[in-house]
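Quick question: what would this complex look like in 3D?
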Amino acid sequence: MKVRFWGVRGSFAMCGPEFLRYGGNTTSVELVTAAGKRVLIDLGTGATEFAKALMATEFAAGQGELPVLLSHTHLDHIQGLPFFTPLFIKGNRIRLYGADPTGSSLEATLQNQLAPHYSPLGALENLAAGVSVDPFTPGSTFEIDGFSIATARVPHGSMWTTGFRITADGKTVTFLSDVEYATPEQPTAEALELAANADLLIHDAMHADHEYEHRRGWGHSPARAGIVLAERAGAQRVALFHHSPDATDETIDAIVEHARGMTSLPVFGAAEGSYVGV
Amino acid sequence: MPIALNHPFGSVGYRITERASAQAWAYVSDTAPFTEVLHKQHFLHGLEELTDEDRAALTSMRAALIEALRGVDTVVYDTHFLPEEYARFPHYGHSTPDHALDVCTDAKVRRLVLYHHAPSHGDDQMDEIAARYAALGAERGVEVVTAREGMELTIGASSGRGKGPAGTTLPGIGKPGAATDDGAST
């Protein structure tokens, strides 16, 4: 399985020369099996770059199928939806999967995003591609196109988001962005279960460890939370993810370096455009 | 002064005048030109046939815009598309620099600022667009500047200083190119 990071930034997109190496687009991660099956996690602004890549494939002719897993619907995770080019081509089938922690339905939330107040698209029905919205209950597991997917609630400030454990080709990737535990040293049982023996753990690392004390309760983790979780859960490798928009390339380099000093596990900062073999 | 624009579900432009100096600038974004499509309160799959009433509404919308912009020093205008892109997406609600130049020529505006650049236009392409329309503008007596992040403009023809076009200053905010001698004209 291959992982490609199309967007790694949290909260809002950044641009400028200080953000060129890790990239400025918000969250969007593609997983591809050896057989070429794809699943996308989140539709942040990075998804617009992924869309361009898809337009060089069967999606240009309206023959593409893509499952998309949404961790939650905060804007930095869905802002790419109205600009996701394959949605405008008849014949493509885009399947959106997600839970909704707000008490509204996922479909109603996504319809709102396309409402005239926010977008000229108006409604999901106006998209030329076939779009389905499949809600799930966190804790459930399901199969999509050769991927086995386990889901769980993880705490995110005053709400929760969905964490994913995705297995394909005998390898497992765990996705835990946006999450904050009671303390960085106390990952929840659900997080431990999702990350158990994972080959790659992609984890929220919004804050530098030394800044975290001032950011408690904001719903995001310091880099060490992912390291602690990986070590306890027996994960093999850690990708620090959901970088703060305040974090320049140099800041992220320092966060990664600091995290490497805490563990013997391989740790890297997720960078936009990079492929990682799992 | 608010100005009605031609954009899906409506959009508002503004003419802003500084009382003390009586200098004015205007913000005209987002808007389609006033010919092929009249945006109303519904989703458009593509161009819809215009009725005589629609054409009349477009004509009066453009006339009101020209009136609002008359004599304004600087107009920041939605120039999202190049002409060939506009031809494919006329119903999206955005203009080309050519449309903006026509409006500014008619309203006798001194300076046009190209703005709301398409996400697909990279820096190299923006440089070409900037150069092409600066030349086209010069032929018609309109100074054309291409907006870039961090750019500051001084409103008023006599306030030019430095090496940029009249009235243009570029703070050194670390953006690529901002340190060049004549950054605003690139």
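Answer marked as accepted. Chain A touches chain B through twelve residues (CB under 8 Å).
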